[in-house]
Predict the 3D structure of the following.
Amino acid sequence: MKFFTTKLLAVCLVLYLRSAYGNWVFPDKVHLEFSDVLNKNCGDTSFTDREKPNEGRPFENPWLILFRHPEEKEPFCQGTLITSQHVLTSAICTEGIVINETKVVVGEYDRLVNPECYKESGCSSMTELGALNKIVHPNFINESYEYDIALVTLSEKLNYSNSVKPICLPLIPIIPSSVHTPMAYNALWPEKSVRPKQIRMGYIPHRECRKFTQDLLALHEGQICAQMKYPEKISLIGGSGSPLLTEFHDRSFQFGILSIGMPDARSAKPFVYVNISTHITWIHETVINSQT
């Protein structure tokens, strides 16, 4: 574990220095081979276009997870599969998770159809599992949403398929700059939506985001802001825990977790995300310590 942390910091320093000169460095080898537990068979679908349609396509986001109460049909939170037994979500979401009761929905696409069959990519079935454990970041502060990150361990390990795969995580930071910012999407099921959407988002620097949040929230290093790139009627309410994604070399990487929106959240207002790069060491160590 010490090796992981030390080496990660060294690589991050190199990346930061190079990014300062306008280069966005994102080497495949580091992301896919650096960790023994993360980024295995991750982020891969048959859709490799950087510009995504608003409506998610079948098997385009096989890492999306829904949490719902047994007695309710609508989910109360969302998350992403990062290993065959671990779901990444927000700490706020875990407040509604009851161990061995909450339903963790895996492999879902069209919430009105099960199983789902498509001529091009075959059939798949939605699966519901239990939550074996929930691990909230020890520094989580409810009032400020700082460290709003958690892991949920599933009751059993999953077999990967075209509808069930883990998302890749940035083992070194994605650093938006004035020269290059990643093309980002918030993939989620909006409130009462049957199929997932892919909402194009634009990065907002901290100094600009603070203009909107200064009376409500003090932004911290581990938080990033983004707003809808184009006017949308879609609400992100109920999307807490959903991923902020980008495409790199035909793989999807998650670099943010939807944490909160402003009370009157609209397309022109920012949403606050957990910066995964800031917490990648905690994620890595927690996955290792919670393997069954």
About this structure: The chain has a mean pLDDT of 84. The longest strand covers residues 251-261. The radius of gyration is 18 Å. The CA atoms of residues 28 and 123 lie 31 Å apart.
